[in-house]
Amino acid sequence: MARYKNYNLDQTKFIPIVFSEQIIPGTFEHTLCFLIDEHLDMSVFDARYKNDDVGSPAYDPSLLLKIILAAYARGHTSSRRIERLCRENVIFMALSADSQPHFTTIANFITQMDDVIQSLFTEVLLVCSNQGLIGGEMFAVDGCKMPSNASKEHSGTHAEFAKKQKKINRAVRRLLAKHREEDASGQDNEHTRRAAEEKNIDSLRQASRKIKKFCAVSEDRRGLKGKIIKSNITDNDSAKMLTSHGVIQGYNGVAAVDDKHQIIVGAEAFGQGPENNLLKPMIETVADNLGKNYTHNTRVTADSGFHCKDSLEYCIDNNIDAYVADGNFRKRDPRFVDRDRYQPKARQARWFKAEDFTYEPDTHTCRCPAGNAMWSGGTRVIDGNHYRSFTGYLDKCRHCPLQNKCMRKPIKEQGRQVSIKLATNKKSGLTTIDKMKEKIDSDQGRHCYSRRLGAVEPVFGNINTTKRLNRFSLRGKTKVNAQWLMYCMVHNIEKIQRYGQMT
Length: 503
Known about the structure:
Elements (H helix, E strand, L loop, with lengths): L27 H11 L22 H13 L5 H10 L1 H6 L7 H9 L5 H14 L7 E10 L7 E2 L1 H28 L5 H27 L3 E2 L5 E2 L1 E2 L6 E5 L2 E13 L5 E7 L8 H12 L1 H5 L2 E4 L6 H9 L4 E3 L4 H4 L25 E3 L4 E3 L5 E10 L2 E8 L1 H5 L4 H4 L10 E5 L10 H10 L1 H24 L10 H23 L4
Parallel strand pairs: 1-9, 9-10
Antiparallel strand pairs: 1-7, 2-5, 3-4, 6-7, 7-8, 11-12, 12-13, 13-14, 14-15
Helix pairs in contact: 1-2, 1-17, 2-17, 3-5, 6-17, 7-8
């Protein structure tokens, strides 16, 4: 019979560890320690501590920053998880010098990073620039929408909140009336059901108080055009956004990326879904981080989400060589002429479109598909394009046999409305939108824009997938922006580790 050596898994052993030897050159931790110890100005944290003469000594901000960024690089955002790593992981023991900070200390340090993170991010970016990791040939701007630490079920306007509060109060009154009837009749109530209903009443009352308090201290949020948009009780800086995965309540993490080594040269989190007004602040952020020479001598690319007249005019006025695609960019590209080959045929439109109306440019008159004349409501300009509006006569629309194909809603006070796009007056010159279309449709424009995808999308893939930042864990724009900058800084440190020199 075979014999084996005895073993015991319940025994312990003390292993001598030299913490300085655990930070191996060439690793992310070694690069992180080198930057924090040699290049970053950690004195920016001194102002938050008031323990010069009295009070307990504080944890060194350098140690806390090292373990937090190292945890983010491994996809850990939980403060409790980071605390556990400092107790059980040798690398984190070495980074923290075996100090083992409490999770509340780590959480408080993270939530107070908003006033210093921008300067730290800029210093890391300057290291990238000094080591030649920033090409300065092309910057790609894009956004990544992620959920926040807030529920979209707690979103709405103040009018919607008032209706919801009334509904909650009615439910509470119904439950209380039911309990009074049961008590008066002497019915033998189930103890478990009664306890559950009373717990439900407490929850409803708490929700009602929360809504009342929020409406008392805040006003309706308004969008870019002054229209009332939905607020959020939990995090009012966040916004509802439409993504490929559905509607979320969150923030839009926007980044400007250099295409040489995919260094993030500018980053900011915005509490809005639309991106058409974000190109200007991102270019200004890059100019603040690197200097105006970079933005004036570098091509800037962005997708159709950033396309609007104001952004394009800003680029022209500031001599920025921008390539911003519009929604029909692919349709005009002859290389994508058969892009819909394998797409299912679209269903026939139920209602008449603007193309179905007959417009006479010489007389500025319009007739509906039924042949009835319409009266003109004047002209307006949208994104540099001129439109003339027309409205059908009420008596004609009300008795029109084509009403089911023309009117989406029942006729009340006015007939069918339609806006006809007017032809561009070539003699007066091209609009800003038209100039960008000609620019991006050129061979050089298509070549420059084709590089955008390979520059910015891998960055979001690294942060979202490898670093596992698929949602923001903090609340409030300042705190979320600080978390976004820290992840972007981790990304840049990895680039220094791979392509830079630690000397």
